[in-house]
Design brief:
The complex is a heterodimer of chains A (244) and B (315).
Chain A: E1 2-6, E2 9-11, E3 19-20, E4 25-26, E5 33-35, H1 37-54, E6 57-64, H2 69-78, E7 82-87, H3 93-104, E8 111-115, H4 126-133, E9 138-148, E10 151-158, E11 161-168, E12 171-175, H5 187-195, E13 198-202, E14 210-216, E15 225-227, H6 230-239
Parallel strand pairs in A: 1-6, 1-8, 6-7, 7-13, 8-12, 9-12
Antiparallel strand pairs in A: 2-5, 3-4, 9-10, 10-11
Chain B: E1 3-6, E2 9-10, E3 13-14, H1 16-32, E4 36-41, E5 55-61, H2 71-85, E6 89-93, H3 96-109, E7 112-117, E8 125-130, E9 135-141, E10 146-150, E11 165-168, E12 179-185, E13 197-201, H4 212-221, E14 224-227, H5 229-233, E15 254-258, H6 264-270, E16 275-280, H7 287-290, E17 293-296, H8 299-314
Helix pairs in contact in B: 2-3, 4-8
Classes of the chains: A alpha/beta (244), B alpha/beta (315).
């Protein structure tokens, strides 16, 4: 089973969010970067579990510059067999999807997995775009993925429940919580990661269709109104906040 | 020129998010001086109600080939409708369906997509929440056709009155490879992502056996229940209740949090709530900084008293 896991570089969940260049760029100074949690804990780990059960390989793919290499090595340390970095700026989701599809289209992957969204842009877009560009089925927000030969049984989140889906490989899937449990890389994994292949390939010609003009921060919360009793709280929620 | 709105239906009726999308698309069309047209897939009634948000026409397609959800087929259908109406802007709700279909459509039409819009566009610039709700980005869509998915509960509803004309629509449906085997609904209880009110609790409740006070309050309020990540990880509460950066994000009108300290990752899942209430014994709990109302107190005492007070309110 040939599995591709698309991973993004994301700021650590506790990173302070600030902007520079007239609020047009995310300020990376002092920020730790990680593999996007949904990509790592759910897509990558499930991919590894399926490889361990069925044989095959797991390749991780990142679209980015050399500063992505540390997080790519982390994915290799967790257990991916090899990595590919498409040397391109992450201009926008459609551009990134085109890079991925242009690379993947003649590689014969059975499964293309990613996390449901990145914690920095919250797009939830690239997986679906890649699927369309590759004329492949797409299952979004999957919380469970089981393989029986070439046939996948997947649970996809829907309003108030799940949809149970069956589809044969090849297909694209975005992973949500429930798919797998995070793995901590062990010493052996970290050592092995250093010599696993990380191939850098050039970007292919592609267009973007959105541009970030700038960022703003939300207005400061006006401050919490502290009260002493439950009765006072309910009264305020009813009369002032009109929430109940 | 026109605006095409994908309005979702389920079990024969338009969903709550269908009206979110219609509200956004209708206002967008009005501001642009153009027509708002909706597309509905599958047997459903009451479609003319979309007219109250300014939708003038509803294209209704019913086809056995579309009975089971496959975003590949849906993207094809919406593209066909967009082509027929000459739509320049296509609107979705940023919900489970929108997240599956809009990206496929974007790639299909090579049309720029902004997901999770929190306001009407300013020209071609759309505002959305980023960094898990800690900031906003203004994103310009530069392609001729633009796709926007709207974050539910972000825009005030504006009813313009009116009834939409419903017309039958059909297009050839390509065969695709996804088969839906079964739909499993959690229960008849209110789904967390649709609930207007949510009562949530965390480690401060000390054990799963104590959740009765949370559930009772939720029931009285007609609220859904949610929880913090630690208690879902240790199995006190089901996974689907976990709200936070690595769980789900919700945007209810009221979020009541008891015994949750308010770590950044939790806030990321609830910072879209209109009103946040925090109940915690620790006056230094970071959650109070993000709250609108709070009580420094014990949930075991406060929640039942809130229940009583609410019952009194209704009496």
């Amino acid at each position: 089973m040939k599995i591709l896991v698309c991973i993004s570089k994301a700021p650590d969940t506790t990173a302070k969010i600030a902007f520079t260049d007239g609020d047009t760029k995310f300020d990376e100074a002092g920020v730790q970067f990680i593999v996007n949690p949904y990509d790592e804990w759910y897509a990558l780990v499930r991919g590894l579990e399926l490889k361990e059960a069925n044989g095959g390989s797991v390749t991780v793919l990142n679209v980015g510059a050399a500063d992505s290499d540390p997080i790519i090595r982390k994915a290799l340390a967790i257990g991916a067999d090899d990595a590919v970095r498409i040397d391109a700026a992450t201009t926008d989701a459609l551009y990134v999807a085109k890079q991925i599809a242009n690379y993947a289209k003649d590689q014969g992957f059975d499964l293309i997995l990613s996390g449901k969204e990145t914690i920095d842009y919250n797009g939830s877009q690239v997986g679906g775009m890649v699927a369309e560009l590759m004329d492949a089925p797409y299952v979004s927000l999957a919380s469970k993925l089981d393989m029986n030969g070439n046939t996948a049984t997947i649970e996809r989140e829907i309003e108030g429940g799940v949809e149970v889906i069956e589809v044969n490989t090849p297909f694209v899937l975005s992973a949500a919580k429930g798919m797998a449990e995070a793995r901590i890389p062990n010493m052996r994994g970290i050592m092995a990661a250093r010599s696993k292949p990380l191939t850098v390939v050039p970007a292919t010609e592609a267009s973007a269709s959105t541009v970030i003009k700038g960022f703003t921060l939300p207005p400061e919360k006006t401050g919490c109104k502290l009260v002493e009793t439950a009765e006072e709280l309910v009264e305020l929620l009813h009369n002032e906040a009109k929430a109940i | 020129m026109s605006v095409l709105i994908y309005t979702d239906s389920s079990n024969g009726a338009l969903t709550k998010n269908a009206f979110e999308a219609a509200n956004y698309g209708g206002q967008l069309a009005q501001a642009a001086g153009t027509e708002a047209i909706a597309i509905v897939v599958g047997a459903a009634e009451g479609l003319e109600a979309l007219g109250k948000y300014g939708v003038s026409k509803v294209m209704h397609i019913v086809d056995a080939a579309l009975d089971n959800f496959d975003p590949q087929k849906m993207a094809h259908v919406v593209a066909a409708a967009a082509s027929e109406t000459g739509a320049e802007t296509i609107v979705f709700a940023h919900d489970y369906t929108g997240k599956a279909v809009a990206p496929r459509l974007s790639a299909k039409l090579d049309a720029g997509l902004v997901t999770g819009a929190v306001a009407l566009p300013n020209g071609n610039v759309v505002k959305k929440a980023v960094f898990s709700g800690k900031a906003f980005a203004e994103i310009e869509i530069t392609s001729a056709i633009k796709i926007i998915s709207v974050l539910p509960n972000s825009l005030d509803k504006v009813e313009t009155g009116g009834s939409a004309e419903v017309v039958a629509f059909s297009t050839e449906i390509p065969s695709t490879r996804i088969t839906v085997k079964e739909i499993k609904k959690e229960s008849t209880e209110l789904s967390l992502t649709e609930a207007d009110l949510v009562v949530s609790a965390g480690r401060g409740l000390k054990g799963p056996e104590n959740w009765g006070i949370v559930e009772d309050l939720a029931k009285e309020l007609g609220a859904a229940t949610a929880c913090s990540r630690p208690v879902s990880d240790i199995g006190w509460r089901p996974h689907h209740e976990h709200v936070g950066q690595t769980g789900i994000a919700i945007r209810p009108n009221l979020y009541i949090a008891a015994g949750i300290s308010g770590a950044i990752q939790h806030l990321a899942g609830v910072n879209g709530s209109k009103v946040i209430v925090v109940i915690n014994t620790d006056a230094e709990a970071p959650f109070f900084k993000a709250a609108d109302y709070g009580i420094v107190g014990d949930a075991f005492e406060i929640l039942p008293k809130m229940l009583e007070a609410i019952k009194q309110l209704k009496a």
